[in-house]
Design brief:
The complex is a heterodimer of chains A (402) and B (105). By secondary structure, chain A is of the alpha/beta class. Chain A contains 8 helices and 21 strands. With 105 residues, chain B is of the alpha/beta class. Chain B is 37% helix and 27% strand. The chains are: A alpha/beta (402), B alpha/beta (105).
Chain lengths: 402, 105
């Protein structure tokens, strides 16, 4: 069995690499697993990067190389493998990660940053003509379409921005848009660029029903959603920009996922499994950008460190204590908690037991495990188990714990 | 891996007797660059059993399109000049390529 890492980060995109910097700089023993031969994730496949604050001009791959170098400077260990399963050892503190190469790795906390991939719609002909006229990556394939006519499916920011980029190469772009005339999902800036571009035209209220061709694509069947009418549109290529799907297949049934398979996280980036965090595009969130992924990574790393500290302190001072302990679940912002504290300290001293306080304002993790609903709640632990408990006690009731 | 292009594609690939794989790639294709070290490793592992070539689409776009390749990454297998299989897509990984190699050698 392998040694136990403090943190295993799954995925080496912007979120995972940012978490790596924070974890390793915080002196945590950190392993980053990446399934492909290069780190950098989706950002490393983006040619033009204009909105990472402080980086006025750079490419996605160049920025991701800097992220990686930063991780290496602080001592993140890198390993290439794909994660196939996540579970916990008994007690829940140690997490087990299974990989495709058959290894089992152990960690006290896990940060998942497996990102997302372009969505495949499953249109007739889509799979058959992938790399034969159907493309999901403008920077990869633009060269093929010099002076040719293409169709773009989608109307979000990516669809619009990539259409504008493609006009530098192609003869014409027809955007197939689900919405009414003039309505795009992209933001205003992107919309204005598209409307002002002579090479871009639009087919409104429509979707692609079928992609046709022989060896290569030669056209699409476009369906008008209002009339049901199908029109043949000649083209040499179809670029699909219809959103992304998260890489969370290996997590199904282990942690809570939101609609579309994205990971549900709280304000600390923690998932439904204590000690397991999410970072970057894989999370259910409002904005998916390099800068927000980096922010997620930082939050997840610091939250992971706190989690480990809290769990180890709890285990050492309560679960593994030789003598009985008095545990007070309290909050420094709760008046009743504050008032009870002197009496608690006195009772603990009188009985010769150690008083351990758990601040529920900082973390609900341990309180939740013992179903503490109200504070203050005081519990006497014996041999690692709750022996007697009082919810919101008065000072004169504390004696009855013994 | 042998570099092929418009000058030698026919000779190295179409007229080759036996199995040959062509890695169609381009510098602006991130996924291609990611896969490259794996493909090189596979070409070394199976160098005895089959031939491995790569084609940079810069300057060779017509050759690629002539082979029905209009997207990257693309790995195309030929046997005695006949196309056997065209692997492609964002999700293409080294394991799939190795499975195809094993199928054709």
């Amino acid at each position: 069995m392998s040694e136990v890492y403090d943190v295993i980060i799954v995925g080496g995109g912007a979120g995972g690499l940012s978490a790596g910097v924070y974890c390793a700089r915080g002196k945590m023993k950190t392993l980053l697993l990446e399934a492909s031969s290069n780190t950098g994730g989706q950002c490393a496949k983006t040619s033009e990067l204009e909105n990472y604050p402080g980086i006025i001009e750079s490419t996605g791959p160049a920025l991701m190389d800097r992220f990686r170098a930063h991780c290496e400077k602080f001592g993140v260990e890198f390993k290439r493998d794909m994660v196939t399963g996540l579970s916990t050892e008994e007690g829940g503190f140690i997490k087990r990660i299974e990989t495709r190469s058959g290894e089992t790795l152990l960690a006290k906390s896990v940060i998942i940053g497996t990102g997302a991939n372009p969505r495949v719609l499953g249109i007739k002909g889509e799979k058959e003509f992938t790399a034969k006229g159907v493309s999901y990556c403008a920077t990869c394939d633009a060269d093929f379409y010099e002076d040719l006519d293409i169709v773009v499916v989608g109307s979000g920011n990516t669809a619009v921005e990539e259409s504008v980029f493609l006009t530098k190469f192609v003869n014409s772009v027809k955007m197939i848009v689900l919405h009414d005339e003039g309505v795009l999902d992209a933001d205003r800036t992107a919309q204005e660029q598209a409307f002002a571009n002579d090479k871009i035209s639009f087919i409104w209220n429509s979707c692609v029903d079928e992609i046709c061709g022989e060896e290569l694509v030669n056209g699409v069947k476009v369906k008008n959603l209002k009339t049901g009418e199908i029109t043949d549109v000649e083209c040499d290529g179809v670029f699909m920009f219809v959103g992304t799907v998260p890489n969370t297949g290996f997590l199904e049934g282990t942690i809570e996922l939101a609609k579309g398979g994205y990971i549900k996280v709280d304000e600390k980036q923690e998932t439904s499994m204590p000690g397991v965090f999410g970072a970057g595009d894989v999370c259910d969130k409002f904005l998916r950008q390099v800068v927000t992924a980096a922010g997620d990574g930082a939050v997840a790393a610091v939250a992971a460190e706190r989690y480990i500290q809290e769990e180890e302190h709890w285990a050492e001072s309560v679960l593994e204590a030789e003598n009985d302990t008095l545990v007070a679940f309290w909050s420094p912002v709760d008046q009743k908690s504050l008032e009870l504290m002197p009496s608690l300290e006195k009772v603990a001293a009188d009985k010769g037991v150690k008083l351990v306080t758990v601040d529920t304002y900082k973390s609900q993790n341990i309180a939740g495990r013992y179903e503490v609903k109200e504070i203050p709640t005081v519990v006497r632990f014996s041999n690692g188990e709750p022996a007697k408990r009082l919810d919101t006690p008065e000072a004169d009731q504390l004696e009855s714990l013994f | 891996m042998i570099e092929v292009g418009k000058a030698n594609f026919d000779e190295e690939v179409k007229q080759h007797e036996g199995v040959v794989m062509v890695d169609f790639w381009g510098e602006s294709c991130g996924r291609c660059m990611e896969l490259m070290p794996d493909v090189v490793a596979l070409s070394e592992k199976y160098s005895e059993q089959m031939k491995f070539t790569k084609l940079n689409i810069a300057g060779n776009r017509r050759v690629a399109m002539g082979q029905g390749v209009m997207g990257l990454p693309s790995m195309v297998f030929y046997k005695n000049g006949e196309k056997l299989e065209h692997l492609s897509g964002e999700e293409l990984d080294a394991q799939q390529i190795e499975e195809a190699i094993q199928k054709y050698i």
